[in-house]
Amino acid sequence: MFNKYDSFIFDLDGTIYTENKLILNADKTINYIKKLGKKVVFISNKTTGSSYDYYLLLKSFNINVEPEEIINASVVIKKYLKNNYPGKNFFAIGEQKFIDEIENEGLKYCTDPGLIDIVIVTLDRTLDFEKIERAAHALERGAHFFAANIDNTCPVLDGEITDAGVTISALEKRTHKKLELHFGKPSKFMFDEIKTQLKTDNSKILLTGDRLETDIAMGNIFGIDTALVHTGIKNILNGNADIKPTYEISSVASILESLTR
Question: What letter would DSSP give residue 50?
Fold first, then answer.
């Protein structure tokens, strides 16, 4: 059933690997698809590493990949900020790697709520009360409210950890301010960045991921077939029952099995 596609989009965490552990036969699947001459793009909402960090991780798994084939939420948001808010002050609920990437685009990291132009929320494993309050005070003083991603959780080897979506909800309730923009899946910002790599018709693209409200939702929004894998997060249907994948498969290895039959 997968032979009809000439381009493949793969989520990373929970689909190709979990933390630093490769999903069984994910490497063989990707390498075979590329051997067939098909186009592959990897996408991730995770911002704790750069796109180049994820390239190095995939290479360590012996996956045939090029740096430009990886798009994470950091790539998308920093391009938008550079083009629309050059030199502005920002505060991020995010880890140092993410902050460094935004600073490298010419924006200035700031911790004074009265001077912060933009509050950005993303995955932060060092999140504490002080960060929440600093962001809240800045939002109450008129700062823009952006997020690199909106995932509620991030998959890890022993389950899931709290991600940006939970922090966004807390700030919205704390400040009565609504999130203005987000740049990861399933946003148009992310999709437009993907389409710079995949110039084929949407009917020839398959998006494979483990999360209904980001991976599968993006495919549904933009008219792309989707495959939901069961190797990542545990999808809760409450509120997501209307998000339907084209296929449900046990793992990316199912694609390899289909292509080699």
Answer: -
